[in-house]
Amino acid sequence: MDTEAPHTQRGHSSPVEGDERPRFAFSRAGRTADGRTVGGRPLTWRRAGVLGVICTVFLLLFSNFVVQPFLIPSRSMEPTLQVGDRVLVNKLAYRFGEQPRRGDVVVFDGTGSFVRERPDGNPVAAVLHGAASALGLAEPSDTDFVKRVVGVGGDDVVCCDAAGRVAVNGVPLEEPYLHPGDAPSTVPFRIVVPIGTLWVMGDHRSQSRDSRDHLGEPGGGMVPVENVIGRADWIGWPLSRWDDVGGGHG
After folding, report:
1. CB-based contacts of 132: which residues, under 8 Å, 6+ apart?
2. Per-residue pLDDT of the chain (250 residues; tens, 9 = 90+)
């Protein structure tokens, strides 16, 4: 006599004895086998759009107050920064009492120093361009510049000494960041930097329009510290150039 118990038919949802797997199988769409959704409503185009807007607003706020990508548009800071680099500008660097130091690479609004006034234009286009540039997707505003701080308030900056170097307060500067083949400056100058302002220059001196080019204009090429947007601390893109910008020479 056959003593084996008859085989019991089981549905797909009936667990085998000792099988601790969940009763419901989930599909890729986040639904159970019987069609119910899991973890809330399914993702729709409308919800994806709202999520995209929230992410964009968050990035814009983060860029406006903490760290902003800045697209390098010219050769004025070579070899430190190259055309197309996205540098990450630390907007908290000078927000809590710290002041720009010699050697810092800073991004600043040149209105009133490098540019007499903001150019007129389509306000809607300006807003859209500002948002794109804040995310590092477009070139910065025509009034935004990136340069290296050479002199701070009270400094006596001279070019050039007997060896052809820039000297600050009588001390010649070692400038390893200069573009190969460039002289520290082909324009002789001697200035005392007013308190609350900066004397700035590009690393590619022969390709840089900087404080030297505005000596005879109102403000004398000095950049007010209050116009500094932040300090360029890192190269964020392209990934092959990921590095800290560096700076500081006393």
Report:
1. 138
2. 444 444 444 444 444 455 555 444 444 444 544 444 445 567 788 777 777 777 766 566 656 667 888 999 999 999 999 999 999 999 999 988 899 999 999 999 999 889 876 555 656 555 554 555 555 555 556 789 999 999 999 999 999 998 999 999 999 999 999 999 999 999 999 999 999 999 999 999 999 999 999 998 888 999 999 999 999 999 988 989 989 897 654 4
- 3-class SS at 208? coil
The pTM (predicted TM-score) of the whole model is 0.69
Query: Are 42 and 63 within 8 A, CB to CB?
Result: no
Verify whether residue 147 is a known catalytic residue: yes
Please pick, among 91, 113, 147, 208, the residue that the annotation labels catalytic: 147
Name the catalytic one among 63, 76, 113, 208: 76
Report CA torsion sign: 98, 102, 103, 107. positive
